[in-house]
Amino acid sequence: MAFPLFSIGRDKSIDVGTTSTEVLPANPRRVYARITNDSDTVIYLMLDEPAKLNQGIRLEPAGSPNNFFEINSTNLYTGKINAICSASGKRLTVVESATERSSSSSSSSSSFSSSSSSFSSSSSSSSSSSFSSSSSSFSSSSSSSSSSSSFSSSSSSSSSSSSSSSFSSSSSSSSSSSFSSSSSSSSSMSSSSSSSAQAQESYTSGDDNQELIYGNNYQAQTFTPSANHNISRVRLKLAREQTSPYTLTVAIQGTDANGNPDGNTLASGTYNTANIGDSADWHDIDLSSSASLTAGTKYAIVVSQDGQYADRVYWLYDASDATYAGGERQESTDGGSTWTKDENSDFMFVEYGS
Q1: Distance between CA 262 and CA 115 in Å, rounded?
Q2: How many Cα atoms occupy the beta-carbon half-sphere of 91 within 13 Å?
Q3: What is the pLDDT of residues 27-57, one digit of tens each?
Q4: In angstroms, how far is CA 268 from the centroid of its own chain?
Q5: CB–CB of 219/270 below 8 Å?
Q6: Average model confidence (pLDDT) across the chain
Q7: Dist. CA 30–CA 270, nearest whole Å
Q8: Cα distance between residue 165 and residue 169, in whole Å
Q9: Stated pTM of the model
Q10: How many CA atoms lie within 13 A of 156 on its CB side?
């Protein structure tokens, strides 16, 4: 059997201007990339879509602590990346590492989804290979008529340093395994709470902007269930720009006569912001207890965190063509005392219940 090999890309320089420029093409074998702003101008990155000024991932000018964007196992993204800035001829330095194709003398199967959230591999009577990047070693194991080779987090065999997240493999008659973050259940799109919980209300596409969550700057999305259920989990599309991890709090509240969050928390959950990467991704937040929601009644998902501006979290939303009819995006700058609605935009969210 053969282990996957790594190819380390050389630095390359790319000029960015006032129109969207592709700086990294899609690469399903990508395991690492770093994009550094070497210019004197702010440059914006956009994942998979054409880059737009003042949107997406902001790279500060050269010399600033936030002048780079890094992709690793904790925020793995294999799609294309585009860039734009307000002036012509501004320079980015890009480096990328990827796995080389591996070969095996036995019947092997290994599949990689181009989505940044799943890698499936399983073994029953054939061999499979999996990749786990949690802290680093190469180990191999074999049993009965099946064998598997893996990069595992145990310290044995050839040691290799890597970052904190893993592609896990499961052995069963059907092949399924999901990408999970080693520091928590969230970076993945896996169901982290009760298996009986089903998606209820949601708005999941069209995000083209983001709002900040920090200190007294709260964000909320109102929603109206179409069926009675007990809510137990929410999924939010988030990113962060932090120097230190803090605690994100998600509260399910009722709404007042004006349709604003009323401050009455029906259920809540917390989440360590260290699990949120620099690039936007979906994160599951389990509620500590479920709350009974009534069809046709408006509720609010209220999100806050105890860090200040330097440790802000971003919640992605659709600012241009929002179509969710059951609620709207809202913001409070005084810790939830008063709220401002934007009825033409909606945050990215899914709420789950049974």
Answers
A1: 38
A2: 8
A3: 878 989 999 999 999 999 988 888 999 888 9
A4: 21
A5: no
A6: 76
A7: 32
A8: 13
A9: 0.49
A10: 7
Q: Using CA atoms, how far apart are residues 290 and 296, in angstroms rounded to an integer?
A: 18
- Where b means 16+ CB within 10 Å and e means fewer, 135-165 reads bbbebeeeeeebbbbbbbbeeeeeeeebbbb
In contact, 183 and 311? CB cutoff 8 Å: no
Supply 179's token pair.
Answer: 């990408």
Paired residues of 271 in beta bridges:
248
pLDDT for residue 99: 82
d(CA 43, CA 45): 7
Closest C-alpha among 83, 90, 68, 69 to residue 19: 83
Average pLDDT over residues 207-231: 96
Helix (H, G, I), strand (E, B) or coil at 37: strand
**For residue 134, how many other CB atoms are within 10 A of its CB?**
22
Contact assessment for residue 276 and residue 237, using Cβ atoms and an 8 Å cutoff: no
Rounded to whole angstroms, the Cα distance separating 284 from 188 reads: 8
Query: Which residues are CB-contacts of 189 (< 8 A; sequence separation ≥ 6)?
Result: 117, 118, 178, 235, 282, 284
How far apart are alpha carbons 205 and 84 in whole angstroms? 22
Inter-residue contact 131 to 138 (CB < 8 Å):
no
